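Dear support,

I submitted the protein below through the web form. The confirmation email said the job was done, but the results page showed an empty box. After a refresh the structure appeared. I'm attaching both so you can tell me whether what I see now is the final result or a partial one.
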Amino acid sequence: PSFLRRLRAHLQRSQVSKLFIDIDLRHVDSTGDIEAIMADLEPHLWRCYSFNVSVPDWFRMRKVQERSGGLGPALEELYLRIDSSDSDVQEPFPLLTNKCPRLGYIMLEHAPLECINVPLPALRQLYLLRDQRCHSSARIAYPFKELMTILTSSPLKWFTLRSAVFTLDISEECFRAAPTPSELPALKSLTFDIVDSGSISLFLESTLLPALELLSVNSGEDLQWLTKISLSPKRFPALRLLDLRNCNFIGPALVPLIRALHQLPQITGLGISSPSTGIVGTRIFDILAADSETLGEWLLPNLEALSIQNCGDISGHELLRVVSVRYASGQVKNIVYLKITQCYPLDPDVLDHLSSLVGTVRTM
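What the results page shows now:
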């Protein structure tokens, strides 16, 4: 009762202002309580601009959906979270029923695409991820055709897919003798986190990404997706920032990576995070510091930014070598931005030297 009194007071005092509504029903046992909360919110949902709802199962989501008919006209942000325990065995349904002309941000956490089965003419950011609290290796599956329908019908700029796989049927465009890729003209940032290399390759082969600037990938040691990009670099003319996570930078595994990077000279920023072996080694930095006489041509001649994260063997000397050699060469761009996060404590003298050569040096 005290909560409902506060809720009604807030709604009354807010008059016609836009509302940010955040409902966590995972700790509400009584369906009567859920119905009471939603009954008070329902007349005001037309002015809700940000709607966040977390539920333990589809039964409680249905209680929310039954009272959400007014949601949509002012909605700009939507976050749905369904606990993974029951969401895979219960039939999903759409939460949105009205047109959402302003909806620009959506995050679905272990929630299927059926939840947003409405036109999304203003969608700019889409995040699809498995329940972040779940520690199992299972990944949530998304129908590839339905996903592409959403992406191609929206002016999407940022797309993140985490802990997921694609499901396919025989009518998929990718199975045709001469498939026609779908263009995503506005997409600038693309992130795959704990997504298998085959799924990443499928996405990259099925799309045209003329505006893509940032590609961040955690797919394990399989670099099939990167090889695909290096064989068709003209399909990614705007690509400038490449973030590699959970890759192997030691031994023969380094060969396909370097071969691919040689075909992507337009890259200006390179990120290396959490190598699969725990250490990044020195070879990648030796190669970045090698001149054209050694390699035939400089690797990543336009490189201006380096970001190193969670690499336990980084001392700073290897980075100083890269920065110094490229600075003195006069043949390639200088490193002007350097970020080192969660690495071995750097030698203070090396850090001072790096700071004198690099415009921005950040350590955490």
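Response: this is the final, complete result; the empty box was a page-load delay. The two ends are 47 Å apart (CA to CA).
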